[in-house]
Amino acid sequence: MSRVVINFPDVTHFSTELSVRIGDINQGNHLGHDRMITLVHEARIQFFRALGYDELDIDGVGTLVADLAISYQNEAFYGDCLRFDISVQDISRKSCQFIYRVVRLAVPSAVANIEGLKETEASKGDTNSSDIDGNPVKSDELIALAKTGVVFFDYVLRKSVAVPDGFITQLDKQSV
Questions:
Q1: Gap between the Cα atoms of 20 and 26, Å rounded
Q2: What is the mean pLDDT of each run of 10 residues along the chain (176 residues)?
Q3: Complete domains list, the chain, with CATH
């Protein structure tokens, strides 16, 4: 089976943390693929807001997702805190690519103990632990890489438009 290959660039424009909620869990007792799409969308919205934008008003124009790909690397479970790193690449006249890296963050021992988790080797400095359902997890483990092709769109005229110059200027300020 051929797999989707997504590489995360050297530049990160934004990072945010999102928790896996019980409603995000599927019959396999892990984060469902449909919920990963929702979390990727939430991360993108938070990125736009950090730049002072709204998804439908980036210097007067909106955005739409033209394509989406996700490459899953590991499972995520209820209660996991995930970091979503975003890099914006391949800016063309009317579109760009948002690349996402999703990483499970370490669960501090104090939080683990508050939530009723057994003290594990992870709370003593090891990176291996278990989630609240006992699933084995590793801190700083890559969960997924994703990509969305984003087109800038005028919803009044119903057509794609140029990437706003202000958005590109904001990206330059956000490069880490």
A1: 11
A2: 95 97 96 98 98 96 98 96 98 98 76 46 50 72 98 98 96 81
A3: 14-105+140-174 (3.10.129.10), 106-134 (no CATH)
